[in-house]
Design brief:
2 domains, five-stranded antiparallel beta sheet, Phosphatase 2c, domain 1, 390 residues, alpha+beta
């Protein structure tokens, strides 16, 4: 196995006045290192387009993930979806990115804008082979992956942005590529890059989108382990074992909780330096221990990280808060969302006496639920998660 991983992020905006998006992105994992990503653009907009694109992406991604041939997938779509009475075609346009063992990508494109491929932050003119499947012309490419490769797939709502407003013929693909080159070199995550592209499309539409617009970005990067310690162990005799396992792991180390950080400081033989500098009024200040990358308060801080994680998976509207602020929750969010690929949680089951005050809304179950919910959010971001309880 190589040391690469594929980070995937996407965002959509709806045609103005429509409740549903006519584009759909589906991602199916094949083991730990392979994925099938399908971006489908349903005909028209609204409910009908949403149904067409959802069915198309679900059928293709599921069948390809099970190892079936492209020809069988397309034939199944043609037989399953209804024929459009106006256009006389049965299914939406689509782009398929099939990542194999984080070493190779197969790109299959049918009538969507061509996938932009960046290598070394320059536009890479990758080879394309023309296929004919059930009378439909498609393009297929097979490319060996390298670190810092970027693939940007999109629906036609992106290059159509600005027609009759900023541009006569829309936002050209080469201009989108130039825009993404600048952003990719700044080190942003795949999700943030997709958000920036779609937000710019929305701006080009004058914030009145004339079409559904979706961008899906895949960023190839090295694996980056991260370790987070949350709460002291139930049995005090397990403190040294827990600390030994935590600090022996490769990667950065984050400690959450006052008691937990005191135990860590004692284990390391280093002073715990508290701070009274409140960067954010509703998040307690951070502390410092030599040999630890970040030390924060526990439940309140982790709960804020969870809120940021939920938003990042949804509309990503809070990005500007956690990406620039210096409070504990923002610092953890940047480490977990942007840097980490493999995250090890070390969770203590001890009941904190301070949380037994009936006036406080914090209970032991809330603490455990925080870990479970945050772990699930991080898995949806494509992170590998391991949780160890003590």
């Amino acid at each position: 196995m190589n040391n690469l991983c594929a980070e995937i992020g996407w965002k959509s905006i709806n045609h103005e006045g429509e409740q549903l998006c006519g584009d759909h992105v589906d991602i199916v994992n094949q083991g730990e290192n392979s994925q099938v990503i399908v971006l489908a653009d349903g005909l028209g907009s609204g409910v009908k387009a949403s149904i067409l694109s959802t069915l198309t992406s679900k059928i293709i991604s599921t069948m390809m993930a099970e190892g079936l041939k492209l020809e069988d997938c397309v034939s199944t779509i043609a037989a399953t979806l209804p024929i459009c009475s106006v256009r006389g075609v049965a299914y939406s346009t689509f782009t398929i990115l099939h990542i194999i063992e984080n070493r190779t990508v197969e790109i299959i494109q049918y009538d969507n804008p061509e996938v932009i491929f960046l290598r070394n932050y320059e536009v890479y003119d990758y080879p394309k082979t023309e296929l004919n499947v059930d009378g439909k012309k498609m393009l297929k490419s097979v490319i060996s992956l390298q670190e810092d490769d970027f693939m940007i797939a999109m629906s036609d709502g992106c290059p159509h942005a600005g027609i009759g407003l900023a541009y006569n013929f829309g936002w050209k693909l080469e201009d989108i590529a130039s825009f993404m080159q600048t952003m990719a070199s700044a080190g942003y995550t795949a999700k943030t890059l997709a958000t920036m592209l779609v937000d710019q499309c929305n701006k080009e539409y004058g914030f009145h989108p004339g079409d559904d617009a979706t961008a899906c970005v895949v960023k190839v990067r090295k694996r980056e382990p991260m370790n987070i310690l949350f709460g002291p162990p139930r049995n005090r005799d397990d403190c040294d074992r827990m600390m030994s396992l935590f600090f022996s792991k490769e990667g950065k180390h984050i400690i959450c909780g006052g008691t937990t950080s005191s135990i860590a400081a004692k284990y390391l033989g280093k002073p715990l330096k508290a701070s009274l500098n409140f960067e954010k009024s509703d998040v307690p200040p951070i502390a410092e221990i030599e040999g630890v990358d970040l030390v924060t308060e526990g439940v309140i801080t982790v709960n804020q990280v969870l809120e940021y994680a939920k938003d990042a998976l949804d509309k990503n509207e809070l990005y500007e808060k956690w990406s620039f602020q210096r409070d504990g929750a923002s610092l953890i969010s940047r480490l977990l969302f942007e840097e980490a690929t493999d995250i090890n949680f070390y969770v203590g089951r001890a009941v904190n006496p301070a949380h037994q005050n009936p006036d406080l809304p914090i209970t032991f179950n809330i603490k455990m639920n925080l870990v479970e919910e945050l772990s699930e959010c991080l898995r949806k971001m494509g992170k590998r998660i391991k949780v160890s309880y003590f």
